[in-house]
Amino acid sequence: MYNKGLYNDWVPKPIQLLLIVLLLAVVMPLGGVYTGNISYLVSGTGSLTEYFMWANYATTIGMGACMPVVLRIKMRFKVRDKMVLLLILLGLLSYVNATTLQPMIFVATSLCIGFMKMMVTIELFLPLMVMIGNRGMFYGVFYTFVLVMNQVAAYYAAKFSLLYNWQQFYILASVLCFMLALIHWIFMHNKYFALKVPLHYIDWLSILLFISTFMFSAYVYAFGRQQDWLNSKNIINASIAAFVSFALLSIRQLTLKRPYLSFRIFTKNNVQHGLFMLFWLGMFLGTASLQTTFAVGVLGYDQVTNAGLSVLMVPGIIMAGVIAVFWFKKEKPLKMYIFSGFAAMTAYAIIMYFSMVLEFNYDYWYLPMFLKGYGMCSLFISVWFYTLDKLEMDEMLAAIGLVLVWRTFLAVGIFSTLYSWFQYRFQVVAVGDLAVYMDGMAVSPQNVAANMKTIQLNAVIIATKKIFGYITLAGFGVLFYVITHHFGAKRFRYFRFVRVLGGKSVIARRRLRERKKLLEEIKDAAGPAV
């Protein structure tokens, strides 16, 4: 009646692994919008860029909203029925995106895609964990594969949009989802994972409050600059709505017998320090907006060339994954691996600081993008491993949605918003400083227009360079923090001699170890949600 695998027993193991890899390759990069084709969506729909930034945030929020209930949903339905239905729905949502011109449709479908994508991917983690065995090695393989697929998907989304139109990539994603649904209808078993559990214990109102909290926050992040922050009533109202929603969500969790979220794990030392490091990881990941401004606005790259810069991160991502596998296999302490990730990110910021010139060549991108890829992958693996280490399954599942949203949305969104604000302010100051070269003695009235573009580009370079300088200084501070943090190591060790008086205690400890191992497998399956 129960089967903890995914496929029928007659399916060979190599074919099962191939099907899991295909499913990961299609579903993990799936989203309502792709960073590579946002500019084509803007020109094709005639809508503001901010709507599609909002939709991009919505995918992560949907994944975080699903995370606390994903295990209950997993055990409620038969594997084949659930997987096939989800793949069909994901295909339909991609088709809706291919045929609509309304930006709010993209926001709604992105939220639903994130929610459903989490239900699909949780099915894949347990079989992969069983195959790989070691939790850290699993993180190294999984994150490497997913991050590589994300960069490749962003590049081909831009390329499809240039060669054909932006709808074609959504059509391709839709067709792939339908094909996978048909394949899995044939090969998957039609049994439950474990004992069937009811869905009426899920508090849907808490899910709505969670979504409302972070969707209003995402609106502030996406539209803040366009609507001039607190000078806009919409921004003020969205901020108030986000605060009220989170307050109601927190109060409701205190009154429920089975709360949707738990805040207890945030009192643990490793979780606090892990969230702190994820926050500073967001500082480095938020530089994507600065990099795009420099590449497209200053150097004049087209969207495909700009998306190709993300592909340059792939060698660094792969190297970080390979090192992670050997690092966790040897069971070495995490400190130096985390330090290497932040050091790579800081080195990326230093190189970009000195690269802010109009004569920047495309070949100069290889080293900084390699370092950024290595830093991103290594920190995703190591900091996430450290944050969720030694947590009980019930505690982790009840709070992982908040941790996921913190890592992928809040931290990155906060710094992206700060960068856009500072970049505007620094440009105004730079134009004022450069105005001294526009007087009648240096530039004749006939040449003012010809020199205006150069002055504007130099103002952008000055502003971006200044931001990268501050990022570098903050990076050195983070490195100092990492090198001085203990990462769970005991400062003082002592030996305790215990004499076992009876055989029952040995049996009891063995049972506890077996139960702990089972819980670890389930926890690890939920841990690497992206």
From TrEMBL:
Presence of the UniProt keyword Transmembrane in the record: yes
Organism domain of life: Bacteria
Residue ranges of the TM segments: 51-71, 83-98, 169-187, 199-223, 235-254, 275-301, 307-328, 337-358, 364-385, 397-422, 467-489
Membrane topology reported for the UniProt record: Multi-pass membrane protein
Stated name of the protein: MFS transporter
Localization in the cell: Membrane
Keyword terms, alphabetized: Membrane, Transmembrane, Transmembrane helix
Keyword Ribosomal protein applies: no
